């Protein structure tokens, strides 16, 4: 399944997907391109090591949001993907993008949605005094972190945690749950009916 990845940061989830494909943990998946909004991102460096084409669509180079959205849309369409993975991509996707790929854009978020949506979810959880946070993999819809939930994993917050100490714990769970979901999707084992997502067995 032709897959395009959107990323902005270090690219740890992107790298986890690549490693899972290489090890056979994800099958029937071809990463055909990476699109970043910062050319110096860690994700871009990871892609270059794996000879994966990288396209930079920097929002700072466009006069307005509409121009950026159009350029991003064109960059994605160029790869003719069947799946789009938004892995730490820090831009809200356009309505045109979402309508072009209904239930085919997957995002990962470091909380148990609908709790703590948007930016700085780990900090939000700590400031709120939550005892448990988590990871959510979901389809992207027209709003921020509100799409149908595919899978979730709870992460207990150790006493005295900081953002810096909690993030590595969350990242480990992100890598695990993300690769499981991508494998299921690429092998036709995810069914969607409205907001209800069903994970199907191979049988």
Structure description:
The structure is a single chain. The protein has 203 residues and is an alpha/beta fold. The chain has one domain (2-199): 3-Layer(aba) Sandwich (Rossmann fold), CATH 3.40.50. 35% of the residues lie in helices and 24% in strands. It contains six helices and nine strands; from the N terminus they run βαβαβαβαβαββαββ. A seven-stranded mixed β-sheet has the order 3-2-1-4-5-6-7, with helices on both faces. The chain has a two-stranded antiparallel sheet with strand order 8-9. Strand 1 (2-7), helix 1 (12-23) and strand 2 form a beta-alpha-beta unit. Helix 1 packs across helix 6 (163-186). The two termini are 20 Å apart. The model has no long low-confidence stretch (mean pLDDT 96).
CATH topology: Rossmann fold
Tell me the name of the CATH class: Alpha Beta
Beta-strand proportion: 15-25%
The number of distinct helices, counting runs of at least 4 residues, comes to 6
Element string (H = helix, E = strand): EHEHEHEHEHEEHEE
CATH-derived architecture: 3-Layer(aba) Sandwich
The CATH homologous superfamily = Formyl transferase, N-terminal domain
* Overall spatial form: globular
Mean pLDDT value: 96
Q: Which radius of gyration do the C-alpha atoms yield? A: 16 Å
Helical content stands at: 25-40%
Identify the strand order in the major beta sheet: 3-2-1-4-5-6-7
């Amino acid at each position: 399944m032709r897959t395009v990845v959107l990323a902005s940061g270090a690219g740890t989830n992107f790298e986890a997907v690549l490693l899972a494909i290489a090890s056979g943990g994800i099958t029937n998946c071809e990463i055909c391109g990476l699109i970043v909004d910062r050319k110096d991102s860690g994700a871009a460096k990871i892609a270059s090591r794996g000879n994966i084409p990288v396209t930079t669509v920097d929002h700072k180079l466009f006069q307005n949001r509409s121009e950026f959205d159009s350029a991003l849309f064109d960059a994605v369409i160029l790869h003719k993907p069947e799946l789009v993975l938004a892995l730490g991509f820090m831009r809200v996707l356009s309505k045109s993008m979402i309508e072009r790929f209904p239930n085919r854009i997957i995002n990962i978020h470091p909380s148990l949605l609908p709790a703590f949506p948007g930016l700085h979810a780990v900090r939000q959880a700590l400031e709120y005094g939550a005892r448990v946070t988590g990871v959510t993999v979901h389809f992207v819809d027209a709003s921020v972190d509100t799409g149908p939930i595919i899978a979730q994993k709870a992460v207990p917050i150790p006493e005295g945690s900081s953002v810096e100490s909690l993030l590595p714990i969350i990242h480990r769970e992100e890598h695990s749950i993300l690769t499981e979901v991508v494998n299921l999707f690429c092998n036709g084992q995810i069914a969607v009916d409205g907001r209800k997502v069903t994970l199907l067995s191979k049988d």
